[in-house]
Amino acid sequence: MFQGSLIFASFALKKDIRLKRTHIFRFVCIGLVFIILFSSWLTSSKISSPGLDFFTKIVWLNFWLITLAGIGFFSTAITEEKEEETLPLLKLAGIDSLGLLLGKSTVRSLRIILILISQLPFLMLAIALGGITPLQIGATIVAMIAYVILIANFSLLCSVYSRRSGEAIILVLIGLFILFLAPTILTKISVNLQARGYLAADELIPQFIKAYQQFAHEISVTERIKTILSTGYSGSVFNTQVVGNSLLGLICFITAWFFFERFTMTNHVKKERKMSQNGEQIQRKSRPGKLAFLWKEFHFVTGGKRVLIIKSILYISVILFVVGGGLFLDQHSKMSFLFSFSWNELIHTSLLLMLVGLVAECTIYTSRLFREERKLKMLPLITILPHSFIRIVYEKIFGCMSALIPVGMAIGFLILIAPDSFTNFFNSGINSLLLLFGIQFILFLHLLAFYSLIVRWGALAFAIGTMILVESVATPFLQILFVLFHVAIGEAGIILPVFYLSLISCFILQLLIAKRLRQIAAEE
Predict the structure, then answer these.
(1) Which among 12, 27, 40 is positioned nearest to 472, based on CA atoms?
(2) Whole-angstrom Cα distance, residue 384 to residue 402?
(3) Where are the alpha helices (DSSP H) in 124-161?
(4) Are 458 and 497 within one domain?
(5) Do 16 and 116 share a domain, yes or no?
(6) pTM (predicted TM-score)
(7) Above 80 in pLDDT, residue 227?
(8) How many whole angstroms from its chain centre is CA 234?
């Protein structure tokens, strides 16, 4: 039984070994270790424990990349086969459910674990720099491997349950929120409600929140890393977090195996697609006119006028809820809930929420810019239209930008009624970095659009991971620029080179996007 199941996994491992990009990626990871080592050496005169600083950077970089892999790499293991409708073909080839799960997910987790293990000899260099012990390095690697097992198998369970990759990604994000953020948020709310007299410490809800927070703390890899990296750590390599993550990962894998046939028996993706297309045809009441692609993006990608109205109501409701609710609580309570609810602070909080909404909408629309054309294989037809390719792309961009009108109006409304809320950004000490943040976000959107043409799912995770890697690599060079120019030029000696490099990178990515679009059109 297991010999037949391991055939597909063995084939996937052999294929992975023969791929050049796999080994190139591993060498890039090793090179990144040396670049961060160089960064720690540059700042060694200002830091008491440069070895600990070097190892801490590597550990948290690994944590974020593993988390992003769980969101965009592990969560699409089975859903990509559902969407391509290739699961029946794999089953006809005699591959059982266990073989599919081992070959599609376990092999992926082994790739990440091998990358972590390959870093181990080079991480030992941190011992020579001082501030870290071999026990801390070994315990951290074991904790990260257990975290890989947990997130890989939990993402696999979400992928088996979901019909689409988007649904699986959302479920993984919810799971990460429940594990890392929800305990802290619920604990703070419980403490504040107890301070106000609404809850008693011995009631069921506070006791449940306390137990939940303790459980999440015990199995949290972030808390485990903080404990290991503390001064004078002499604990064991294996603890509750390692055993708990491994057991939870095994439970998730067995659950996915048990329910695999039930959730993959029928594929409803095509039915849902037909229903959504029929609904869009019923709702369509206008004609495209001369700007056909702009009209198409506005109505089919962003949702059209109906979604525009819903978002307008939603943003207005958020502003009224934050401002009105904050003032109401401040007037009817003797002690503040989280902070003092002044008018400017509430408007400032609303402005931050609107900016978060703007970033989220831009990210979603950019990732979907070329998705339908790729899925329906319409790029060859687009290239033969009597319009330039640049015009078509910019029409699609402006069509998506038209959906940003509600959040743009909300931001403008907040600035209009309270100009001080906008000037708070300039008075917060980051005024010179606003331009840099803006161009970095534009660069991120270019990366996201490019990766959406490279991978079917997980473009967002790849784009975020690339930005994290680029920022990590750029850190030592920024430190050199600061040392050379901070006296004569000031902080502009760092900001201006990064700004210009980001502009050049955006231009290069535009060329790569155009090249990739023509390549896809030629292949299809």
Answers:
(1) 40
(2) 26
(3) 125-129, 134-161
(4) yes
(5) yes
(6) 0.76
(7) yes
(8) 34
